Amino acid sequence: MVIAKCWRRHQERTSMKKQITTIATLLVFLTISLTLPLKLDAQELSEQHSSEKLAKLNPGNKADKASLRALLANFTNLKATFNQTITDLQGQELQSSTGELLLQKPQQIRWITESPEESILVADGKTVFNVDPFVEQVTLLDQSTLTKSNPLMLLITDQESQWVQVAVTKEYNAFTVISLAVDSPITKLILNFGKDNKLLSIVSID
After folding, report:
1. Which of 12, 50, 13 is nearest to 165 (CA)?
2. What is the structure's pLDDT at 206?
3. Peptide bond into 59 cis (omega under 30)
């Protein structure tokens, strides 16, 4: 069982779209495997250039990245309970939620929020289905849009397009993953492993 913790520094989620984006980008669990486009438009070129600049400033450790990549390659599925805390800029808690996360390669996720309000998010690699039992409503969203440039995707895909967007460093049994993408919903991801290379906990910060 993996324990996942997430911290967010936003005032609050004011719309269903924001809520869906928050859940999907957590990944804590998430999923998408991106393929590098044959042609890049102006915005994509700009994002790529920004990532390259950040990579020069924070290159991380290539050996540590290779080590983490090898460890995650052995994972086929993941089950975790999570605690998500939303705070303001002063660190005061605004909201917290708990639930269960199920991940499975390739690109599949089931995110169940149990408290304070029940909701279910299911992703199949192409589409995200957000289910609100209270209003009996299902919202469909494009998964690639919600999970682009998200370091959490490293848990369920080995696509090079995801790995080039992060810098990795290791201290003892903990790997710190820093996003190099300017539009990433998560700035830092910390993965703690046991002595047997078993994933014990995940902390995401955005």
Report:
1. 50
2. 77
3. no
Per-residue pLDDT tens over the stretch 29-66? 332 222 223 233 334 334 444 444 444 455 678 999 99
Q: Where are the beta strands (DSSP E) in 19-173?
A: 77-87, 93-104, 108-115, 119-123, 127-132, 137-142, 166-171
User: Residues in the chain, how many?
Assistant: 206
Per-residue tokens: 36: 């590098």
The residue ranges of DSSP E strands in 62-126, in sequence order, are: 77-87, 93-104, 108-115, 119-123
For strand 108-115 and strand 77-87, is the pairing parallel, antiparallel, or unpaired? unpaired
CA 92 to centroid of chain Cα atoms:
23
- The HSE-up count of residue 103 (CA atoms within 13 Å, CB side) is 27
How far, CA to CA in Å, does 184 sit from each of 70, 93, 180? 23, 23, 8
Using CA atoms, how far residue 50 sits from 3, 142, 149, 153, in Å, is 33, 24, 12, 20
- Check: CB of residue 192 under 8 Å from CB of residue 170: no
Closest to 142 in 3D by CA, of 12, 5, 34, 6: 34
Query: pLDDT under 70 in the chain at which residues?
Result: 1-59
Element at 50 (helix H, strand E): helix 42-57
Q: Identify each DSSP E strand in the chain by its residue range.
A: 2-8, 77-87, 93-104, 108-115, 119-123, 127-132, 137-142, 166-171, 174-179, 188-193, 199-205
